[in-house]
Amino acid sequence: MLNRLTYLFILFTLVLTSCSKSDEDDQQPTPDVQPAKGATLQVMVAFAPGQLGDQGIADNVMKGVVLMQQQQKHAEVDSINIEFIALYSFGDTRQRLRAWAAEPANPYYNHDYERRLLVLTEPYMAQWLGDINTLLRPTDEVLLLKATEAEVQEAAANYALDQRLHALNIDIGPFIRKYANFMKEDLEMWRRIYEANHEEDEEEDDDDWYDDWDDDDDTYDVPVPDHVRVYVYRQYEPTVVKYSDNMEELLRQELGPEAEIIKLYVDNLLDDGHYNEGANNNYLETVYQTTYQIGQQCYEEGLSYIIFDLGIWNTSAIRYMNISEHSLDALMIDATTDYSPSFSCFMKRDYSRALQEWVNDWCQQPAVTMPQIRTLGDDYITHDIPKLTMISNEH
Q1: Does position 10 have pLDDT exceeding 50, yes or no?
Q2: Using CA atoms, how far apart are residues 375 and 197, in angstroms rounded to an integer?
Q3: Minimum mean pLDDT among 16-25, 276-285, 340-349: which range?
Q4: Helix 351-364 to helix 57-73 angle, to the nearest 10 degrees?
Q5: Quick one: DSSP state of residue 335?
Q6: What's the sign of the alpha-carbon dihedral 254, 255, 257, 262?
Q7: With the C-alpha atoms ordered 109, 111, 114, 120, is the resulting torsion angle positive or negative?
Q8: Do 327 and 222 meet the contact criterion of CB atoms below 8 Å apart?
Q9: Residues 213-248 pLDDT 10s
Q10: Dihedral of CA 185/193/290/260: which sign?
């Protein structure tokens, strides 16, 4: 019995030895695994104070930031960090930018970023480059959104950034012209309708001709002027913020010298006061009162048009439009229109896609080789500016 147990033990030992040897033969030599170096590139997107949450262009840019973060999260190689600054104070934003510019280290690894890109979402933020230009390294670059070639060249010279300062702009000029042509054709159509109704009224010898119309048709009693009257309602006066789209000049070219172009501004200051709750409510009240007064005036004096370019107050303005139905048509620039009345239209620039494409190109190019200005057009704009045939069919 003992001999049998001994035999089994020896046999079992031989089997284990054989299996172990076989496993060792199958194993391949494994090289030493080095720890990941971490991202060597950084993109910092700095929003204008209080801008994020505007349901317009800033939120569209933020959509691009989130998509880039998600894309990098699932990438096999950790090559770029995407971050953003969104504060409510001008002072806090400038302080945060100075801290960022002075510290090029990757906080997650023991090395500096090889290259960094700062994205500023408003052209007027270029004036803050004087705070950080001496802190930026030769491989650090800045991208201004919505800036023109002249603006970026001026800023590059003022702050000694040369080819490290770039601009990304989506040109809305063709669509301003499109809306100007719509206004002319729309006004002419309503003039003909108004005159035709009055001719019928004279034939029927009815002093209160408009009472015969249904409620849905009471637009016919709104006077129709012989020229276009358009209000351009913007956030800040041009002495505070320089607008790069030449909107007023384009409107004048298309509408002619007889057109009334009435410029309105919410405020003439650019400071932290806009972004505390009390002040913001005051500005919203200003937008409401102004829009209401314009609507009342248009109903009394005749059909008019308005272009809203109010930034953070854009979506609030459209809510007050119902008081002026059929006497005031509106164009909303870079604003959500889910709840807009049927007599307004929108034009929205896709800075989300434009920024993603620019950053992708920047990542693949050597340092300081991106073009100083990139201007995009129709493919990056969605709109619902109607054609006259559409309006004619509705009425």
Answers
A1: no
A2: 47
A3: 16-25
A4: 40
A5: B
A6: negative
A7: positive
A8: yes
A9: 444 444 456 778 899 999 999 999 998 888 888 999
A10: positive
